[in-house]
Automatic annotation (TrEMBL):
<dbReference type="InterPro" id="IPR036909">
    <property type="entry name" value="Cyt_c-like_dom_sf"/>
</dbReference>
<dbReference type="InterPro" id="IPR051395">
    <property type="entry name" value="Cytochrome_c_Peroxidase/MauG"/>
</dbReference>
<dbReference type="InterPro" id="IPR026259">
    <property type="entry name" value="MauG/Cytc_peroxidase"/>
</dbReference>
<dbReference type="Pfam" id="PF03150">
    <property type="entry name" value="CCP_MauG"/>
</dbReference>
<keyword id="KW-0349">Heme</keyword>
<dbReference type="InterPro" id="IPR004852">
    <property type="entry name" value="Di-haem_cyt_c_peroxidsae"/>
</dbReference>
<keyword id="KW-0560">Oxidoreductase</keyword>
<keyword id="KW-0732">Signal</keyword>
<keyword id="KW-0479">Metal-binding</keyword>
<feature type="domain" description="Cytochrome c">
    <location>
        <begin position="209"/>
        <end position="334"/>
    </location>
</feature>
<dbReference type="GO" id="GO:0004601">
    <property type="term" value="F:peroxidase activity"/>
</dbReference>
<protein>
    <submittedName>
        <fullName>Cytochrome-c peroxidase</fullName>
    </submittedName>
</protein>
<keyword id="KW-0574">Periplasm</keyword>
<keyword id="KW-0408">Iron</keyword>
<dbReference type="InterPro" id="IPR009056">
    <property type="entry name" value="Cyt_c-like_dom"/>
</dbReference>
<keyword id="KW-0575">Peroxidase</keyword>
Length: 347
């Protein structure tokens, strides 16, 4: 009787394992490509020139985590864009490149790039398919030439196979390299925070009283620049930071127009739990410090955004209670699914 019992338990466990294994396998082979979240606007990326495929996405993921893209084969895209930190370089005020060289700006998060018209804190790049050229060739980052990167990849037979699967040809070209990286980055979509589920009326989820009040404060005080649902309007603005030690003039470096001095790209407010430190140079370690800046430390620098000049003193008027409620709402923008999405992790 005892033997029969254990045999029964064994068969049940075997069946459950087989079902789970089957489900896992199904998850691995099911690839839906780029899917626009229901509460998001239409993307601006031109998918007709680079449709996301399973082979292209997987190639892009492999390239994203491959240190061969750097001169000394030590730094990958994933070194400065870490998934557990919403693809930022957590804990570093500015990015660290090969030979521990220091960059000049904080590594921005990689998320929801299909809705971006411009890239980098200081602009200058307006096509996602060109963006990776900057970190690959910049001295402080990967310090490599595209020619050398291509030669490295061409020497690896598995890469030839992967490029052929993705693009129908085993030619390893700059265009295919950039498009593969874009396909991976386009799939880095953060759209399953509590906020999204409330807006989409999913699962009877609702804001707490503090979160709801914070949402109203956000809409009154912050939404002009941090537009829902991406929580950025994609523009470049001067938010009154005192110039840093290197006097980084932001967008001006790309345009050489005086009106663009000290303007930086408006960052998304999604996943702030994971993306400290904050601002283009990582000068603020906490969100409390960020709010302190806006409520009492805004500098009247050239081209200060008019929205920050409307009140006296300059900035945004927030009481301590309003700050607490605003932070409660901002916490609803943290997306655990995005942070733990295994499909985006190094394989």
């Amino acid at each position: 009787m005892r033997t029969k019992y254990f045999r029964y338990i064994f068969l049940v466990c075997l069946f459950v394992y087989a079902c789970k294994k089957s489900d896992d396998t199904q998850d691995m082979v099911t690839f839906l490509g780029f899917q626009k979240p229901k509460n998001f606007p239409d993307p601006v990326y031109n998918f007709s020139n680079n449709p996301v495929t399973k082979a292209g996405f997987e190639l892009g993921r492999t390239l994203f985590y491959d240190p061969r893209l750097s001169r000394d084969n030590t730094i990958s895209c994933g070194s400065c864009h870490i998934q557990s930190s919403a693809f930022t370089h957590h804990g570093h005020d500015v990015s660290h490149g090969i030979e521990d060289r220091l960059g000049t700006r904080n590594a921005p998060p990689i998320m929801n790039l299909a809705w971006n018209k411009a890239f980098m804190w200081g602009g200058g790049i307006y096509d996602l398919d060109l963006q990776p050229i900057a970190p690959i060739t910049t001295h402080e980052e990967m310090d490599e030439s595209l020619e050398n990167v291509l030669n490295k990849l061409k020497s690896i037979p598995t890469y030839r196979n992967k490029f052929k699967e993705a693009f129908g040809s085993d030619e390893i070209s700059t265009a295919h390299l950039m498009k593969a990286l874009s396909q991976f980055m386009l799939m880095c979509i953060s759209s399953n925070a509590k906020y999204d589920k409330v807006i989409r009326n999913e699962g009877n989820i609702s804001f707490s009283a503090a979160e709801q009040e914070g949402y109203q404060i956000f809409k009154e005080k912050c939404a002009s620049c941090h537009t829902e649902p991406l929580f950025t309007d994609g523009t470049f603005r001067n938010n009154g930071l005192a110039p840093n030690a290197i006097n980084d003039k932001g967008l001006y470096i790309a345009t050489l127009l005086d009106k663009d001095q000290y303007k930086f790209k408006v960052p998304s407010l999604r996943n702030l739990k994971y993306t400290a430190p904050y601002m283009h140079d990582g000068r603020f370690l906490t969100l409390d410090a960020v709010l302190d800046h806006y409520t009492g430390q805004v500098q009247d620098t050239p081209n200060l955004d008019p929205l920050l000049k409307q009140q006296t003193p300059r900035g945004i008027n927030l009481s301590t209670d309003q700050k607490d409620k605003l932070l409660a709402f901002l916490n609803t923008l943290n997306d655990e699914d995005f942070i733990h999405n295994k499909a985006l992790a190094e394989q």
